[in-house]
Amino acid sequence: MKVKERIEFDLLGSIINKCLCLIKKNHGVDIDIDMLPTDDPLVYELINTDTSLDVFGLDAPEYHELISRMSPTEFRHLAAIHSMYSQWMREKYSFYIKNKDNPETIVYESNIEDEVLAQTYGVVLYIDQIVEIIHRYSGIPKDISAKIAIYIRKIMKRELSIWKSVFVVGTQKKGFTEIFAEASWACIIIDGKTTTYRYKAEGEAMKTYVCYWLKAYYPNEYEEALIPVIDSTL
């Protein structure tokens, strides 16, 4: 973990813990944040209307731009926001929004892509999806497919050249044409360079969700917990 990320993580933990202590003190309520439902409409209403920058992980105007365009209503939308924040992923954002708003227009190249990409509206966001697509198209074992995904991210051309042949042959054995296999590999290479791990995006999304839940139901305690921590960093 980078130093900046470590500092932000420590600050976030301090805010949440302080807020939970204040809630216990003021209301006599013990809250287990690991048990919070992630589909609370009130939380998403706040996420979509809040204009402040006091939620760690979304404390930048760019994030609010993404939120305003997406209007998240589900946890997977929050995870997608965190996965697409990097400059390398932003170009996918318009496609995600378009497909999210018009799911009936999404065209999948195969049933495999339909099943693997349905939760992200046909847009490849996660390394996990790259691994699954490689495995299900070609029959290459998942552990090897995971290594190929790493080769893609590191642009290891020699290794990729070797595995391309294996992928194309394996995909043809599954009943697809050579042209389809070649085109699929090309897309995998392009998408695989910019993806992130699903668990990482969902972890960041959960931090965001917890903060907004606390802010939605206990705004006074959240604000009181936030101010001392911010002051300590000045």
Can you walk through the features of this model?
The chain is mainly α. It is about 70% helix and about 0% strand. The protein has helices at about 5-25, 40-50, 60-70, 75-85, 95-100, 110-115, 125-140, 140-155, 155-175, 180-190, 200-215, 220-234. Residues about 1-10 and about 230-234 have low confidence and may be disordered.
Largest sheet: none
Instruction: Say how many strands there are.
Output: 0
Instruction: List unreliable stretches of 5+ residues.
Output: 1-9, 230-234
Distance between the termini: 22 Å
Structural class: mainly alpha
The percent range for helix content is 55-70%
- How many helical elements? 12
Tell me what portion of residues adopts beta-strand conformation: under 5%
Overall pLDDT, averaged?
Answer: 88
Which word captures the global form? elongated
Give me the strand/helix succession. HHHHHHHHHHHH
Q: What would you report as the Rg, rounded to the nearest angstrom?
A: 21 Å
Give me the secondary-structure topology.
Layout: H1 3-27, H2 41-49, H3 61-70, H4 75-83, H5 93-101, H6 111-117, H7 127-138, H8 142-153, H9 157-173, H10 178-192, H11 198-217, H12 219-233
Q: Which terms summarize this structure?
A:
234 residues, mainly alpha, 12 helices, 0% strand, elongated, disordered N terminus
Brief account:
This protein is mostly helical and 234 residues long.
